[in-house]
Amino acid sequence: MAVGVRHCTVRFTELESSSLMKCSLSSSPLYRKQSVHFSNSFSQRYNQCCSLSMNGCQGDSRAPIGTVETQTLPAVSSPALAMERLNSAISDMIKSDPPPYNSGIIRLEVPIEEQIEALEWLHAQNHLLLPRCFFSGRRVASEMCINGASSHSKLVSVAGVGSAVFFTHVRPFSLDDWRAIRRFLSKKCPLIRAYGAIRFDATANIASEWSAFGSFYFMVPQVEFDELEGSSIIAATIAWDNAASWTYQRAIDALQATIWQLSSVFITVQKKNPHSHILASTHVPGKASWDIAVKRALQIISRNDPVLIKVVLARSTRVMTAANIDPLTWLACLKVEGENAYQFCLQPPHSPAFIGNTPEQLFHRDRLSICSEALAGTRARGGSELLDLKIEQDLLSSAKDHNEFAIVRECIRRRLEAVCSSVLIEPKKAIRKFTRVQHLYARLRGRLQAEDDEFKILSSVHPTPAVCGYPTEEARAFISETEMFDRGMYAGPVGWFGGEESEFAVGIRSALVEKGLGALIYAGTGIVEGSDSSLEWEELELKTSQFTKLMKLEAPLLTRGQSRIINQNQKVR
Length: 573
What we know:
Shape: globular
Strand content: 25-35%
Number of helices: 12
Distance between the termini: 75 Å
């Protein structure tokens, strides 16, 4: 019996150009940068994954793609039936003549009449040694600008394994790279999206722990599970470009190899604390070095004619555990308390997983509409409603926190004005509450001058003063000179590009995790006039607590006199 298919086809035209924004750093570093070696395979360079699928950056970014299609098959009642229908459709493609195009991308999707968590589907594929991704938008009040007003506004989360096409390079993300991604996307196929992340500072050297990510890494999933409100979709995507030596036949063969490995047996992801036992925990910088860095920043900030008004300094904490850390289990635990946050996971081939539970939106574009937000100032939540309100009022009345917040808000406003015909700020100052912390918050909306000018948007709004400082270049130079580790994708843009929409969060409250070899947990805090290094250190502890609460010290080792915390007090050169 033939299966009906609904087609959506579009052809692309060349995009307008935009100048590439670059940053410059000055001076030599005060500290020696440190790399963390997870495993031998981890140090393999990004270009070694090219054999797994097609690197879209190797094609002609200006050449229009031959075809962009979404084929929607009839809905079924279960994931098992969806896989049968998907397999049947792929078999039909193999038997049919190839499309008459030298390049293209085709998405086959099967709706499922049941809502299933995308993270559970991804966890069922834990046995696969393939690149994977996960992105979950925030579940917030209706007035928030999340996921726009498109026909797919009820998309809850997306999980993917394998890459139909990926995009990566060690050079900084450029206009040509953005064009390379855009040529595989279409407004008429809104769920063909490229998920990924960009380094915080593309000019900094890439440390070994981040080597597989390159300067940026994006992927269009080969097999994807979309969780919607009340239903689900499973999809398979093939992409080919003869100019990049990746033919339609190779794409079909690669997809079939992935499909054969998939599991349709769902296992509920543990959402309670796994309590991995900590064998050792190492801060970079240690407390003494942190105090020196903050003191030096304050000396510059307090000058009569300061070149620096704010700088965000970060810390990397490496934890070694007695048992494996499953990044998806960690992510599931974070998701429970992350109703107002984005959850993400990005894992290229031969690399750890970059996971996070970030509260901060960088921008969301829905056609010509764009929104962003300013988030700064941090306090813990109170143990009671009365205490929580008291802490909230303290945050609202703090001159130091208002100064830090105003810097972030006004800087984002000016950057949006550079790409928008109008910008509205509402509310101008409010409180955003999360499970463990609360922040000062403002929401910014704008009307873009050009819908397809996403590269300019990304270049304009990243990095915000909330993760870098102000002025931007001076703050970035100070970070480069001072910090002793590679931020990698931490505090960089994390999200997705789509044909009619794009959304990026800021990759904070994040960690780099590899099974059996521990994790690197990242956190940062803004230094402005009036900052106290010890209080800022306590803020780092508060921000990393969402990860550290998942672990506990290994009590038996304490009796043997082994150290629990190893602070690396690096000296100024």
